[in-house]
Amino acid sequence: MNEQRLQAYNQLIQTLLNCPSGKEPEILAANKELLDADFVQVVVAAAEHFAQQGEENTAEWLRNLATYLTTPETTPITEIEIYEQFLIEILQATAESNGDAQVIYPLLEANTDKLNNIFADLLRRWATNTLAAAEPNAAAEIVLVIGKFSNRISDFPLGSKANNMEIAITGYEIALTVYTRSAFPVDWAATQNNLGNAYRNRILGERAENIELAIAAYSAALEVRTRSAFPEKWAMTQNNLGAVYSDRILGERANNIEMAIAASSAALEVYTRSAFPEKWAGTQNNLGNAYSDRILGERAENIEEAIAAYSAALEVLTRSAFPQYHAETLFNLGRLYQDEEQFNSAYNTFVKAIETVEALRVEIVSGEEVKRKQAEEWNQIYRRMVEVCLALARDTEAIEYIERSKTRILVELLAKATLTSPENLPLVSSSINFGEIQNLLDNKTAIIEWYLFNDCFRAFIITSDNKPIIWHSNEQDLNALIDWTNEYLRDYYNPEDKDKIQWQNQLEERLKNLGEILHLEEILEQIPKQYDRLIFIPHRYLHLFPLHALPVKESYLIDLFPNGVGYAPSCQLLQQVQLRQRPDFQSLFAIQNPTDDLYQGYEKDLGAFAAIKKQFTDVNILKQDQANKSAILLGINENIHNVTLNQKLLKANCAFFFCHGYFNFASPQDSGLQLADGNLTLADIITHFKLENCRLVTLSACETGFTDFTSTSDEYIGLPSGFLLAGSTNVVSSLWTVSATATALLMIKFYEELQQQSNIVLALNTAQRWLRDTTVKGFQDWLINSSLSLVWQAQLNQYFDDNHKNASAKPFESPFYWAAFCNIGKGF
């Protein structure tokens, strides 16, 4: 994009951020000519910039905007009428079904892309205009429907929880413009109670402020909901008030806990076990939380009170009757035992809680997003179980529980693909024991598996014949890692450094700092010298960094392992891909230069394909305007339910994509590869690809190795996971915007190495070292004997003459040029 276009994009973003609430849709509709793929990328970059500055509300709004604009191939923004039609449709469905979730939720699920701030603003504007013209009785009917819709969306499990809560709050605030205390006291109090719930569960905004708003709303409700007039509803709001006081940040902590105990105890005066067993148990759970945190009184007595309250709750909240509440109460009890260093009791309690959580997971039939949300909700129970196992010296169990929390959806789908009867999927185990992990390794291969805790990070070193070695950091190391990551991402997405020159120049020093923060040399010293191959299993945002390129003493990590350094998302996934046998490497399917900018000037033919394709007996290449989505997914434009994969790709042993790539942080499933007629998205790959013969997918494009590091579910969501799920055993992808010339040379050398050996990881590492260490003269000598065309040999020689006068210089020595690519998967 040119400078003028970039200025226009940034001006539009500023206009949207500064405009009055509700005006955004009109502004977007008035600037359709700017709403293209580049604008989406600028919005995502701006969101990350604001996030790094600590302005999370602004960042979230921009992420929502990127979601609203969907994928970069989308034609100019959909008319605002589509949002209005959906708004009317959802309110109509709410009215006709009396707020029935079975009617409303499928409609919401089909329109999660519209559940954002734009929808909330449109709801407010529509309601304001409609209510202003409505008769009093009609106005009351309208806000009744809006209130029921708000109740439903506040509990809706899909989409963005942050967005859903903002929409719910908007709805309740609208209702309160009609439901005044004087005219509708009962409805006013009920809405105040619901508004308190929404503020208590709100994600955006300051947590302390949200809690104060919740307390104010509950307190208002209690002005009408007295014990004498509305005893059950009074008890409900008292219980809510007790829960929120337990979470209160402002004020004296001791006083807040006493208020929580008083409110929960008041609720129990009405919520007796005989009359309201479920509500009684829920309040006992809240009371247990309050006693767990109590500051006044004897600590031992408070702990006993908390245990008694949790135990009482579990008498009613049984696994068979209330599995979700049963797991929540067990988690609270286990957490109490852990905090009190009663680790055996904590272990036994967490075992039961995890059994319940995993049983709940098996019952989920509504899709992967629901499972991911469930994993996010319960991730902390696995983390705490890992901590307890380590405290009890159950080291191998700690690793097993780490694995049980990682990439569960992907592993289940991979396992399902190998079943002859996919309907048996619930019977597939999503766990791996330590012995099975060791069986993945030969006697010269080691795994370093990282795990990030709340107060430290740990590296688990696993080999085939020894107990795991566990290295752990202190809290200062974790804080340094978080700061390093924030700075790295902030500078990478800095809109003022659009070509990433500053980030590029600082990369080598930054990687050195990362190695020091991770104490890499100290960790590597724990690995015996005979181990010559290393597999990294990163965790969360560590997936974004080239760990193989971290400096170690006078060299880099890949120089220390002669048989290669590769990556896997988890041991379970490594186990799945190792089960696949892909011995053939004869056929190539490639996408070449699908967009105009890739075949202009000397880059029209980088020579890479001419060299690479000679290594295969069967070659199929889609070039330029033939490299389109409809040529890969046959029937995609006619009937999405009857799409078939290009047969040549289906049979290929190697798939090579030389094109632009992108990662959509706002909607990872919409990440993809840019083709001539649109984008091949991650969702497309997951839905339609089946690569039963594929040993290697090479994504020679920018940012193709990015994953959704914002997720707390430990899922590995990105293009590599899509191609692994599709059937490939290995995926080579990139961690940043790469240099075209360096990448072409790297790929040519990589495939030359693959002619000599079957070790894909070693071939890639060898090519990376070659690119890093070769001098200008070395490249010129290599060109003479290479299989590149004479035209491109001349172009490269001219490149070196123009840019690197010193024949002994190493033009691609910086990690920026050679370290971006990594191999995820089997390695062979």
TrEMBL record:
The keyword Flavoprotein does not apply. This is CHAT domain-containing protein. Gene3D superfamilies: Tetratricopeptide repeat domain (1.25.40.10). The keyword Nucleus does not apply. Keywords: TPR repeat. It comes from the Bacteria. TPR repeats lie at residues 327-360. Residues 510-825 form the CHAT domain. Pfam families: CHAT (PF12770).
